[in-house]
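STRUCTURE:
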């Protein structure tokens, strides 16, 4: 009887100990699951499955960097002997090479381009392009009239030109009398023909973006300019 009671007590104690171990293990598993869920939520706030950049995992992309070429280490290395510079010549020497734009002694391109016909030859060279007005065109205008490019255009004797300034050339014979020719430049022969027929020449300013309309508008001074104030005082 005594042995049976001892065996029953031992079995009861072992059963309780086993239940206690199961409870402890179950609580630990719950804590690990909850902490894993929290970590996954925090990681998903950036990107699911993304690795954070740290100093210990920074590296260039694969193929972005190359190893240094080993020159002069034998022909089996690929760049031995002449090291890829060829056998002889100025560029194969140490410190060799020529400056940018050098063409072996001949006149280089940057010095040949300004010498093409019609191109300026330096900063002091002045080359002005004019729209041409010939004397034959002036013959179609009435005597004793003011002639300039807008007048010839309105008379349908000329069309628009690429240049905003114009020059009168002595092409042909002038028959009109008493013309007042307004242009930016006049050749000597054209000036002589106009003055011989009783006309006069008025030279206009050679602005790059000259406008005949603005030239006409300049005749009326600005109301707040000094000339306008002096004229107003004179009237008063």
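SEQUENCE:
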């Amino acid at each position: 009887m005594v042995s049976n009671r001892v065996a029953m007590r031992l079995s009861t104690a072992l059963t309780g100990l086993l239940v206690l171990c199961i409870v402890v293990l179950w609580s630990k598993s719950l804590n690990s699951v909850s902490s894993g869920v929290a970590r996954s939520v925090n990681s998903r706030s950036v990107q699911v499955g993304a690795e954070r950049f740290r100093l210990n995992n920074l590296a260039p992309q694969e193929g972005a960097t190359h190893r240094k070429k080993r020159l002069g280490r034998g022909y089996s290395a690929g760049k031995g002997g002449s090291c890829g510079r060829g056998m002889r010549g100025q560029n194969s020497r140490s410190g060799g090479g020529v400056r940018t734009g050098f063409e072996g002694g001949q006149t280089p391109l940057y010095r040949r381009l300004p010498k093409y016909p019609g191109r300026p030859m330096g900063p002091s060279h002045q080359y002005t392009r004019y729209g041409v007005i010939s004397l034959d065109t002036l013959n179609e205008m009435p005597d004793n009239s003011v002639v300039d490019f807008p007048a010839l255009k309105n008379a349908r004797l000329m069309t628009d030109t690429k240049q905003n300034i114009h020059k009168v050339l002595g092409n042909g014979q002038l028959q009109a009398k008493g013309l007042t020719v307004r242009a930016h430049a006049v050749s000597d022969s054209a000036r002589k023909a106009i003055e011989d027929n009783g006309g006069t020449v008025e030279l206009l300013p050679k602005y790059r973006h000259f406008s005949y309309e603005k030239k006409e508008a300049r005749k009326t001074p600005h109301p707040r300019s000094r000339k306008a104030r002096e004229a107003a005082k004179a009237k008063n």
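REMARK: The CA atoms of residues 53 and 61 lie 14 Å apart.
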